[in-house]
Amino acid sequence: MSKTVLIVGGAGYIGSHTTLALKEAGFRTVVYDNFSSGHRDACFGDVLVEGGLADTALLTRTLEDHGVDAVVHFAALIEAGQSVLTPLPFFENNVGGTLSLLNAMNAAGVSRLVFSSTAAVYGNRTDVELLDEALTRAPINPYGDSKAMVEAILESCVAPHGLRAIALRYFNACGADAQGRTGERHDPETHLIPLVIQAAQGTRASIAINGTDYDTPDGTCVRDYIHVSDLASGHVAAVTHVLSQQEPGVQPINLGTGAGQSVRQVVDAVKGISGVAFEVTEGPRRAGDPATLIADVTRAREILGWRARHSDLETIVRDAWVFAEGQRGG
Ligand SMILES: NC(=O)c1ccc[n+]([C@@H]2O[C@H](COP(=O)([O-])OP(=O)(O)OC[C@H]3O[C@@H](n4cnc5c(N)ncnc54)[C@H](O)[C@@H]3O)[C@@H](O)[C@H]2O)c1
Ligand SMILES: O=c1ccn([C@@H]2O[C@H](COP(=O)(O)OP(=O)(O)O[C@H]3O[C@H](CO)[C@@H](O)[C@H](O)[C@H]3O)[C@@H](O)[C@H]2O)c(=O)[nH]1
């Protein structure tokens, strides 16, 4: 019989792609979301439950009523820059909300979890080229702090609660479903690629580069951009892994490509795909931004048998561009 997966935050960007991938892999899917940033037309679960993370009783009932075998937990506030300005909601939703979910899982006897962590837990490591999971967590913004705290909480729950979990540390999610079924629609949008695309579409006047004096090859921040459909297949592998995991335990696993792209390279890629010479300005650094974040992807390959397949910058930008054009009827 097929296993059932609860997807908390399944109406969001990464959650909606992952729901599609889990269904295609033969899982039964239950989406749980409060639509604070998700979209009703991006819910692809076999079942939809509308509710908030803080509602432990509803989460517990949902786990029990639908016979959930494993949970994938995406629900969070996600903007690193915003978390510097308004930290408290980040801790309340991301840490407090996860405690509520863990309490519900304990009450319902569900012990298998895949948690959305982030490259932001590494902070600003200028001493290493690639970030591997054995490095100490050292976030430099409240968003990263909130995710590092949850990782620590999960580690505490292994022995007492028999938790079997993977914390997937995604690098920069981007791109869109190649069939156009879902894509990136954050509101407000703060992520680089969709903002640059808006500049190319003329729905924003220009794109500002946040800082050109970083210690990087062209002075702008370098990130490891990972196609959201690659993230989705990484979740299928992680869910499959925790479902077959005999012993309790939690481990972090990076999902990235192992290569970095600068802000200027992203801007140039969008100019190339769109054919539009939009205006680019150079502004100050954004608070809380590490200079470089690039994944060591050895562990994902060895433990999950996973690697990125769609994450060359051209494919990412083309899929994101096609989705964005479709959104405005272009
Ligand atoms: N987008 C990225 O580049 C990126 C990178 C690393 C990690 N992550 C992590 O991945 C996860 C998903 O990110 P995303 O880009 O898909 O974000 P998103 O905002 O598109 O999706 C989050 C979903 O969670 C729901 N949600 C939020 N708070 C909730 C609550 N209290 N109760 C119920 N539902 C709630 C939202 O409605 C939304 O559907 C987040 O945990 C984020 O921290 C994202
Ligand atoms: O108008 C803009 C927007 C962004 N940037 C820069 O582009 C880079 C990427 O920024 P963004 O797309 O906002 O992503 P990050 O701040 O790197 O954070 C994303 O990637 C992290 C993992 O690396 C996740 O933890 C976060 O949730 C997710 O928002 C950064 O240097 C930004 O300063 C600009 O120069 N101009």
From TrEMBL:
| CDD domains registered for this protein in UniProt | UDP_G4E_1_SDR_e (cd05247)
Biological process according to GO = galactose catabolic process via UDP-galactose, Leloir pathway
**What EC designation does it have?**
5.1.3.2
Which cofactors, by name?
Answer: NAD(+)
Molecular function, one GO term: UDP-glucose 4-epimerase activity
* Assembly information from the UniProt record: Homodimer.
- What chemistry does it catalyse, as a reaction equation? UDP-alpha-D-glucose = UDP-alpha-D-galactose
What the entry lists under InterPro entries is as follows: Epimerase_deHydtase, NAD(P)-bd_dom_sf, UDP_G4E
Give the metabolic or biological pathway.
Carbohydrate metabolism; galactose metabolism
Family designation: Belongs to the NAD(P)-dependent epimerase/dehydratase family.
Q: What class of enzyme is it?
A: isomerase
Q: Is the keyword Isomerase in the record?
A: yes
Q: Which UniProt keywords apply?
A: Carbohydrate metabolism, Isomerase, NAD
Q: Per the record, a Pfam family?
A: Epimerase
Could you tell me which residue ranges the NAD-dependent epimerase/dehydratase domain spans?
5-249
Q: Does the keyword Isomerase apply?
A: yes
- According to UniProt, the name of this protein is UDP-glucose 4-epimerase
